[in-house]
Each structure stands twice: as structure tokens, then as C-alpha cells.
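User: For a reading group we're discussing how well predicted structures match intuition. Take Serine/threonine protein kinase. Before you show the prediction, I'll give you the sequence so everyone sees exactly what went in.
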Amino acid sequence: MHLRRLILLTSAALAFPLHAAESWPQFRGPTGQGVAEGDAPTKWSPDSGVEWKTEIPGDGWSSPVIDSGKLVITTSETENGRMVLKARAYETETGKPAWERKLFEPTDDEIAARHAKNSFASSTPAIADGVVYIHFGHMGTAALDLDDGKVLWQRKISYKPMHGNGSSVVLHGDLMIVNADAEENPAIYALNRKDGSTAWKTPRVADVKRTFSFSTPTVIENGGRTEIISPGSGMVGAYAPKDGKLLWKATYDEGFSLIPRPIVAGGSVYVATGFMKPELLAIRLAGADGDVTKSHVEWHVKKRIPKTPSLIHYKSRIIALDDTGFVTGFDWKTGKEAWMKKLIGNFSSSPLLCGDTLYCLTEDGVAYVLEVSEEGAEIISEIDMGDRLFASPALLDGALYLRSEKALWKITGT
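Assistant: Thanks. Here is the predicted 3D structure of Serine/threonine protein kinase, as C-alpha cells, for the group to look at:
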């Protein structure tokens, strides 16, 4: 391998292990990049190749997280005429409920500002050291014992939301990092994992009219320095875990309501910039300091960029699944389109890659399984699950875990 390419590949790395995973501990898996290892089922139906299916009560679009034989999701349910927010755990071997825990009763004001496509339980939990960290945005945050659901602590970060909440939590060391890109006074919080107290709070600094966004941060190592990469309306910033100091930023006009989680590959971070007219930016990480908008943005493209699904890195390609079903492979060095495949449907769930197998789930409940290469993509299977799919999938030990609107599924294939 050419020395310069080797330096690029190693100068910016995710702050998560890249070896075979024993858990699916956060939104988009062990690295947060939507990439799994091992076997991947490619053919099944709702009645065949399904190891178990478990009906789940209430509503919610949080994605499943898995560790120590337990799968955890969050739900919003109605009890005695009031909404309650819960965490629920299930045994991965059988799909049977392990425990449930009622955590919060949001006020009428707290539940008023929600987009029709959003749920009250959209933020994906995170698991570490036998503790599951639950987040409902402005409605409440908590830490629970993974084994039995015992509440270790709970608190609220109060802010005025727009369209509800969707940003998922990220863990780093002793910190739990959450975005609060609210309608007013957006900020990033780092909470102490042991008790939920605020370690630091950093306001967003961006000259935009609409400040609300819903992206999930990514923690990386950049030239020996740990950085929290966190996109928001109008800008993406890198923050120091120690004190929340803004290390560098890149701006992008009036981008807002930003949802996709950034990915890192080949020494660059790749960011989709939100609604209306989204762009995909490749930002070089080596030497990034201060405002790098003019110095480090390697390329940007404007066609077929996702507003909701997150990106995928595959070999020399950045794969983007846009909300209307265009799957595009961009050259990671130049941004030039290498190939495109059109799928039928609308997409909110982020895609998942395992080897050469790519999973894409439609809002109407169709699971597409594609075989991808650097030259293109072909559909292997098209499975109608009979239930809407907004949550992102998990894949562990050769089993695909899906959360549909009314059920959890463990799929091993036929």
C-alpha cells in the first residue's frame, strides 16, 4: 500500500474497536458506522427464516441495542390516559421479555412539538459495562442496570424542541454525550455516566435561522487527539471530550433538521447537511483546526443526498441511500458518482452493511437485501415484512434484528 494512503487511513480512526463484535451497543453498531461482521442472512420471509417474532406494546422508532444476551428498546405507551416512557429488554435467544421499566411521564407541553413521522421514543439507547443509557431528549435521560432494569439515575435536560427528539446518545470514557439542537439555544451536553450530572455544556455557534437538528455524534481519534464529531444546523464541529471546547468547524449555509450520523473513512469525515437542499461534504481531518470550511472541505455533492438515512463506507465508496430510494456509490476521494441503483419506496431507517451485503428498509415495511461492489449494486431479495420499518437494523452472530412498528424480529434466514 502506498505510504500516503496508509497515513490517510490511520490518521483518523473511530474510537471504537474494529474486531469482531460481541455486542451491538449503540446506534449503528460497535463503530457507529452501520457496519457488521460475520454471516448475514439474505433470504427469508415473515413466515420462514425467522427464529422468533415478539409483539411489542406502544410506539417508538428507537433502534435495538444488544449486549449480554439482552436486546433493549424504548417505547411510549398509554397508562390511565397518560403517556409514559419506558425501557424494555428482551432475551435475544427466545425473544421473551426480560424486564420493563417506566421512566418518565412527559407533560402536555413536552409532547406537543412532534413531527408526524417522529415518535416519542426515537433516540437509540447505548450500553457499556452492564449499564444501559436511555434518552428521550428533553423528556428525560436515565441509566439502568442491564441485568434487571434497576434505575441507577435519571434526570431531565430541559430545552424547547422542534418536531420532538431523534438524536441518540454516545458514550466515551466516563461521559455520555447528547446533542440538544433545540429550537432555541442549541447545545451539546456531556453527562457524567456515574450519576447523570453535567460535565460540560457547549453552545452551538452558527449563524442560521433554524437551529433544530437531530444528528448523533461520532467519537474519533484524529492524529492522536480524541474528537467528538457533532453536526448541527449550519455547521459540523469537533469538540474536546475533556471540556467541550470547539476544536474545529466547517459551515454549510442554512442546513437544518440534520439527521444522518457522520461517518469516517480514509482520513476524512463525511457529513450530510440536512433538509431542503442537502449536500454531502468530505472534510479532511489531518491538521484540522479552527474554521476549516475553506481549507479542508475536499469535495461536496448535491445530488441524491439523504436527509434521514445515515451513510455507509464500503471500500473506495461512500454509499448514500436517499429518502426516496436512490442508492448511490460515490468515490470517496473525489465525490464522483461511481454507480446508482433505484429502490422502490421511502426510507428513514439507516442502511446496514455486512461484507458485500447491504440492508435497506422502507417505511412501508419492505426489506431490500443488496449485493454491493465498487462497480454497482444488485437486489438479492425483496421481502415484505407486513409492518412499517423506521428503526435501523442490528446484526450480531449471523442474526438480523429488526424493529418494525409492532414487533421485534430475529432473522437467521433460509
